Amino acid sequence: MAVGPRTPVADELAAWQNRPLDAIWPIIYIDAPWIKIRSGSVASKPVYLAVGVDMDGCKDVLGLWVGDEGEGATTWMTVLSELRNRGVEDVCIVACDGLKGLPDAVTATWPKATVQTFVIHLIRASLRLAAKQHHPAVVSALRAIYTAPTEQAAEQALADFTAPESGQRYPAVVRTWRAARNEFTPYLAFPPEIRKVVHSTKLIESINARLRKTTRNRGHFPSEQAALKVLYLAVRELITPKARDVNHVAAHWKKALNQFSLFFEDRLNTR
User: Fold this and answer.
1) Which residues partner with 94 through β-bridges?
2) Statement to judge: residues 91 and 146 lie in one domain
3) What string of DSSP letters covers 12-35?
4) Residue range of the domain that includes 179
5) Element (H, E) at 61
6) 155: which strand partners?
7) Cβ contact 250:259 at 8 Å
8) Total tally of structural domains belonging to the chain
9) Has residue 2 been placed in a domain?
10) 16 plus 102 within the same structural domain
């Protein structure tokens, strides 16, 4: 990362990026929106973003990191290791996209963590592969999979979707869901209260929307440090104590937390 003159914002950003974190997190969402940075020429680079849900059911932006061109599991390993070094000892669920190698990076960092692919990402990826006039039918078929009460019922719903009419029309959709099976299956074992928290990506998407709004009219940034300062200022309001009420995950978080404690046994009781 390029180092420029120190400013109050730069000092604040450095302190925020290195602050200690809670040891235990029920869930952490990780994603990588893209921005444009000039380094000789203008290039698109991923911004590695980690958002945690703490024991009180409030979200916290754990960090922002600008990576090289092309999102990679190796860089994610570095990011996750930094979170561990800042105090994160255990995470119950890490929700992420289907990047190859990312589940291995997660389990290498937190061996007990359950890796869960974003359900909404699977749905959106499927709709990109389907003709618009068929979206209602595809959505209905996919809903039967991700709302199935058991893994067996989900397998049957997927088998129904792979029947000749749909399976031959959209083989890439079928392949998408089968390829994500290992990281999607844990979702089916969660009780409803945990499913609601995992299924919703409003937390991460609201922050992504804030970042997109911030960067939309800028075209590109002159350096990684300049980008990080602007992005940090964009999310700062989300990580202040006064924002905790509006950043609450769910109205019934205590019910969800009770289910986390039961489902993951005593891992949350080490707080």
Assistant:
1) 28, 115
2) no
3) HHHHHHT----SEEEEEEEE--EE
4) 119-200
5) strand 59-66
6) none
7) no
8) 2
9) no
10) yes
